[in-house]
Design brief:
- By secondary structure, this protein is of the alpha+beta class.
- It is built from 13 helices and 13 strands.
- It has a 7-stranded mixed sheet with strand order 2-1-7-3-4-5-6. A 6-stranded antiparallel sheet has the order 11-10-9-8-12-13, sandwiched between helices.
- The chain is globular, with a radius of gyration of 22 Å.
- The mean pLDDT is about 95.
Length: about 375
């Protein structure tokens, strides 16, 4: 971000002087939440409609990382970040998720009865007769890295759903990237007709639900909609670099309240750039069912107090795409210029902290202390 150009844009938009912006940004940087200067602009904290109390509710990426470290146990992260383990749990409990078609794993791991691929040759042969279209993603990764929608294979090049072609060797290279731990081929899910009409695309648009799980209850604290544009086959936002959109959702009704095409001033957007359909007021279909599904699934991942679920709405109903930890909780603040640390989150985190301390105390006293 060009901070000077952005500050000038804020001045032109609001009349707030560069000096005042700088004073506010420095005060927030030195404050409890340690908001970065770029975050001051990205999250819209410069908005003159915000009170001092409302500005204090914003959190930084640093605070987001601290919350994740504090309330998600290291030993439990594998339940979310390893997609095979995550899907094995979902499958055993009968939750809906994209059907696995094949798994590439040199160690022979897989979810259920999908085709097992253990070598480069196995992957090459599989792509010759695979049931296209299909989706492929790393077993262990995040932020959409290595994920792609596949439309076909001619023996030399893999054809992607966005129309691009990739040489097989280049396509296969991420499979041997050790941290990815192999790749998972899945059935391609389709967007619900109402969402497809909004976007003009069959590509899945996930709802990110930030869930706080405490006392065996789940609070869906924040939800936002990742909206595809153009020929994109993934809904990644990445600060607007891909052209996709983010939309804030009313968690009670599943209705879009704000939408952005990029972070910072003048990033708001009211209509989808491809279809011209109004974004504000759009109601996510099957919203209550999606909320209920995420809440029910969240109970089965102990040790993860802050869970980030990606849920897709399909013609058959809500689908659990994946569970993530280490997510940037601060990013949704950029959509509606609203701080994440509201009274609901403060109360939920206090409950989580009390549970955490109770566990530590029980371990200190020992099993037979009572």
């Amino acid at each position: 971000m060009n901070l000077l150009a952005t500050a000038k844009a804020v001045r032109n938009l609001t009349g707030k002087t560069l000096g005042r912006q700088l004073r506010e940004a420095i005060a927030l940087r030195l404050g409890k939440q340690r908001i970065g200067i770029s975050e001051y602009f990205e999250y819209g904290i410069w908005d003159p409609k915000l009170t001092a109390e409302q500005r204090a509710a914003f959190i930084s990426w640093r605070t987001s990382a601290e919350l994740d470290r504090r309330f998600n146990s290291d030993h439990a992260r594998v339940l979310a970040n390893d997609k095979l383990i995550n899907y094995i749990i979902l499958d055993s409990l009968g939750f809906p998720f994209p059907r696995p078609l094949a798994t590439y794993s040199v160690s022979g791991r897989r979810i259920a009865k999908e085709t097992l691929l253990k070598s480069r040759g196995d992957v090459f042969q599989y792509l010759q007769t695979a049931p296209y279209p299909l989706f492929v993603k790393p077993i262990s990764a995040g932020y959409g890295r290595g994920a792609a929608g596949l439309a076909g294979f001619d023996g030399e090049q893999v054809r992607l759903l966005d129309g691009n072609r990739v040489e097989f060797d280049k396509f296969f290279a991420p499979f041997d990237f050790l941290p990815f731990q192999g790749m998972l081929f899945q059935e391609c899910a389709e967007s619900h007709p109402a969402i497809r009409e909004l976007t003009g695309s069959a590509a899945i648009c996930c709802i990110r639900m930030i869930c706080i799980v405490a006392r065996c209850e789940t609070l869906v604290h924040t939800a936002f909609f990742k909206i595809v544009t153009g020929h994109n086959m993934l809904d990644n936002f990445s600060h607007g670099d891909y052209g996709n959109l983010l939309a804030a959702l009313d968690t009670e009704r599943g209705v879009i309240t704000h939408a952005i095409r990029r972070m910072g001033p003048q990033g708001a957007i009211d209509r989808h750039p491809d279809t011209g359909k109004s974004l504000i007021g759009f109601e996510i279909p099957l919203w209550s069912e999606a909320i209920a599904l995420a809440k029910e699934a969240s109970r089965h991942f102990p040790g993860l107090g802050i869970q980030n679920w990606d849920v897709a709405i399909t013609p058959q109903g809500p689908l659990l795409i994946e569970l993530n930890t280490e997510s940037e909780l601060a990013v949704p603040q950029a959509i509606s210029h609203r701080g994440l640390m509201d009274a609901r989150l403060v109360e939920a985190l206090q409950i989580l902290e009390a549970e955490r301390q109770a566990i530590f105390e029980a371990m200190r006293l020992g099993w037979h202390s009572k």
